[in-house]
Specification:
The chain is an alpha/beta fold. The chain is about 50% helix and about 10% strand. The strands form two sheets. Strands 3-4-5-6-7-8-9-10 form an eight-stranded parallel barrel, surrounded by nine helices. Strands 1-2 form a two-stranded antiparallel ribbon. Strand 9, helix 14 and strand 10 form a beta-alpha-beta unit. Helix 7 runs parallel beside helix 11 and helix 14 runs parallel beside helix 15 (about 340-360). The radius of gyration is 25 Å and the shape is globular.
Length: about 450
């Protein structure tokens, strides 16, 4: 039998080559993985037309994955600059790249990206609709929106953020809430505007079954977007956010019934003490589907440092059930990120993800930390640089104030605790004072 989707194969008791690869990467039995895919608790986004893909699993019991956002916009039309960011994401082992291009004929960049990237590729078709269709927002029809989705699917996109949960009921809740920051999702705000200006229901909700048929044809995973995610800690966990989440739970089951894999998106901005409960609630309301979070950003007052506020929230979220972290750069809320911003955002997110994997007891997660500790004990700097998340920065910092002594850095110098203890355990004498100095005599 020719299986159209990973979920269909898993439900039928069959193992795909993508499942074999993911099981090997995750150090888990392939049959265990197949059952998780069958139940919807793990998604393997793998469009049949993305031939350069190195498949990854997202979900329960697997390593926390990282997504990097980039793309062409009216304010940044430099394809080569965006491709540098792609190269950086791949270099650092990010499992997913979202092309959020919204300017010009975006398929030129997207096709090149899909052709060369081993990482999962995601898009938000709503961003591309106006440029692709060359129409004003009010002139776009429901079928037009589906046409853009089909175009992205045919090109090889592995997962798509679709804001299907912001229907009329969800908007009623939003209007009653009187939020500080209203709607901060770009795709969600465009759909809200389209619905209000045309008087129509959300086309992705109204024609959800048609949407699923397109996604199933190419095995595209649907990432159910949280159009009403909180954009400030004051708006977190309100009725609008939770009402949409309930809709997303219903949409999750409908997608699974069509053998379409699902990821559910979550907050947003949120105080630390609300994160764990929100993760539990999402998993319950959305039937254990993989959870994809932006942050959460845990305070609103740190522009320029939101890679840190996001990493704090992301580590807590992933420890309590989130499976997929969208990176946030220092430029969030301020401007488009440059290459250095992207690097900082990636590293911060990877720290959050790895820290959570250790806390969750993910198989082999601690191994690299143990290797780093052993290298530190031996003062083996080359191995430390090799194991570091950002080896270039680690080496640059170390070499920037070299003591001319390969065994010690300038933090402790001759008082290096590792060196001192190693000397004693080896039966050697610890010498701290310079040889020419006589500490027994004073003028």
């Amino acid at each position: 039998m020719n299986y159209k989707t990973q979920m269909q194969a898993a439900k039928s008791g069959n193992v795909t080559k993508e499942m074999l690869l993911v099981a090997k990467k995750e150090h888990i039995p392939v049959e265990q993985l197949r059952q998780l895919v069958s139940a919807g608790q793990v998604a393997i986004p793998a469009n049949i037309n993305h031939t350069s893909l190195s498949a990854e699993g997202i979900g329960n019991g697997l390593r926390t994955k990282i997504n990097v956002n980039l793309g062409i916009s009216g304010d940044c039309k430099d394809y080569s600059a965006e491709m540098e960011k792609v190269d950086l994401a791949i270099k650092f082992g990010c499992e997913s790249i979202m092309d959020l291009s919204n300017y010009g004929k975006t398929n030129v960049f997207r096709k090149e990206l899909i052709a060369m990237s081993p990482a999962i590729i995601g898009t938000v078709p709503m961003y591309d609709a106006i440029g692709y269709l060359d129409k004003d927002l009010t002139d776009i029809t429901a079928q037009d929106f589906l046409k853009v989705v089909e175009s992205h699917a045919r090109e090889g996109v592995d997962f798509m953020t679709i804001h299907a949960g912001i229907n009329r009921r969800a908007i009623e809740l939003f209007m009653r809430e009187e939020r500080i920051t209203n709607i901060v999702s770009r795709g969600g705000s465009l759909l809200f505007a389209w619905m209000e200006m045309t008087g129509n229901e959300n086309p992705f909700f109204e024609y959800y079954d048609d949407l699923l048929e397109i996604l199933r044809e190419y095995d595209v995973t649907i990432s159910l977007g949280d159009a009403l995610r909180p954009g400030s800690i004051a708006d977190a966990s309100d009725a609008a956010q939770l009402g949409e989440l309930i809709e997303l739970g219903n949409l999750t089951k409908r997608a699974w019934d069509r053998d379409v894999q699902v990821i559910v998106e979550g907050p947003g901005h949120m105080a630390i003490d609300e994160i764990a409960a929100n993760m539990t609630m999402q998993k319950r309301l959305c039937h254990g589907a993989p959870f994809y979070v932006l942050g959460p950003i845990v305070t609103d007052i740190a522009p320029g440092y939101d890679h840190i506020t996001s990493a704090i929230g992301g580590a807590i979220a992933a420890t309590h059930g989130a499976d997929f972290l969208c990176y946030v750069t220092p430029a969030e809320h301020l401007r488009l990120p440059d290459l250095d911003d992207v690097r900082e955002g990636i590293i911060a997110s990877k720290i959050a993800a790895h820290s959570a994997d250790i806390a969750k007891g993910i198989p082999n997660a601690r191994d690299i930390d143990n290797k780093m500790s052993a290298a530190r004990q031996r003062l083996d700097w080359e191995e430390m640089f090799e194991l570091a998340l950002d080896s270039e920065k680690a080496r640059r910092y170390y070499e920037s104030s070299s003591l001319g002594d390969n065994n010690r850095c300038s933090m402790c110098g001759k008082m290096c605790a590792m060196h001192t203890t190693n000397q004693i355990l080896e039966g050697k004498k610890v010498e701290l004072l310079p040889e020419q100095e006589d500490c027994g005599k004073r003028d």
